[in-house]
Amino acid sequence: QYQSPDASKLLTGTSVIMPMYNASCWLDECLQAILHQDFTGTMELSVFDDASTDDSRNVVERWRERLEARAISVVVSGHNSAQPRGVGYAKNKAISQSCGQYFCFQDADDVMLPQRVRLQYEASTLHPNSLIGCKVQRVPEGSTERYTRWINTITQDQLITQVYMSHGPTVVMPTWFCSRNWYLKVGPFDEGGKGVPEDLLFFYQSLRQGGGVARVDQCLLVYRYHEKATTHSVTEETIWKLRVDFLQERVLSQWESFTIWNAGKQGRKLYRSLSPTNQKKVKAFCDVDDNKIQKGFYTYEESKQRPKPKIPVLHYKDASAPFIICIKLDMTGGVLEENLNSLQLKEGMDYYHFN
C-alpha cells in the first residue's frame, strides 16, 4: 500500500527509484554514475532489495558515505523472504519510502550518463503529466539492434501512435522519469510478480488517464542486455493480449471498418483475437503476396457463424484505409515503408502499426 512520505521531509528534487535483486556485479558502475550526476537540485537514492541472495545490500551500504558526502541521501530497505516479490512490488516499496517530488527510475544493471537527472528533471517540470524517456546506448553493442534503433529513432508523434507495437512502451521503462503526482494518479505498479509486464500495464494506464509521452533526444542511459533480465520472464502471449485489448479500446472502437495489412499468420492471428464486433468491421485483408491474393478470401474456420465469414484478400493498392499493419517494421529492406509512403497516408489517422 502506498504511504505518503512525511510532509516535513518532502523534497523539491528527485528520488532515484531503484529496485534491486542480485545486482552486485553491476552496482559499483551504477552507483558511481549516480554519484557523478551534474544535477544541482536535491537528490535521493531510494533502494528496495527484493530478497537478494548475493551481497547487493552490502555494496549499496559501501557507497552510502560517498553518496551522502555529495548530498545525495540514501534510503535502503528490503525483505529476506524465500522468493522475490517482483519488480512492481519493489518499485512501489522504493517509492513509498522516498521523498522526492520527481522520480528517476533506475535499473540496478544500467548506467546513467552525468546529465540524465538534470535534463529529464527539466523536461518533467515542463510536462508534469507525462512519462519522460531518453535515447539509450545498448550494451553489448549489437544486441537487440532493431529494438534499439526503434527506441532511438521514432519521432515524438510516434511515441503516441506506436504504442500498440510488440516492442512495448515507446519510452522504455529503464529511462522513465515522472512527477510523484503523476505516479499517484496512475499507479501503483502491478505487483503480480514474475511474468507480469508491470511497465506496459502502467504505461497504458498512464495513457488512459490522459498522460503524455515525451523523450529527451539525447543518449542518457547505458541500457544493458543480459539473459537474467526480468523482461525475459514475460510471455509474448501476455503482451499480445494486452496490446489487442488496448487497440480495440483506443482505436477500433472509433472505426466503423478497417483493413488488416497482412493476410498471413500475424494478420489472421489479429483477426481471430478481436471481439466479434470488431471482427465484423474487418472489410478486407491486404497483401503483396500473389498466392494469398489469388485465393481471394480468408475463411474464418473457427467461427460459430453460418455461413462462416469470408474476408476478401486484396492487393494493398486496391484496399482502402484505415489499416492496421501487422508486418514488422525494418524487416523488408524498406519495401513496406515505401509501399506505405506511396499511398500518402497519415500514421495515427489512416493507419496504426501493430507489430
From TrEMBL:
InterPro entries: Glyco_trans_2-like (IPR001173), Nucleotide-diphossugar_trans (IPR029044)
Coiled coil: none
Domain Glycosyltransferase 2-like: 15-183
Gene Ontology molecular function terms on file: hexosyltransferase activity
Pfam families: Glycos_transf_2
SUPFAM superfamilies (UniProt xref): Nucleotide-diphospho-sugar transferases (SSF53448)
PANTHER family in the record: GLYCOSYLTRANSFERASE, UDP-GLCNAC:BETAGAL BETA-1,3-N-ACETYLGLUCOSAMINYLTRANSFERASE-LIKE PROTEIN 1
Protein name from the UniProt record: UDP-GlcNAc:betaGal beta-1,3-N-acetylglucosaminyltransferase-like 1
Naturally occurring in which organism (per UniProt): Sander lucioperca (Pike-perch)
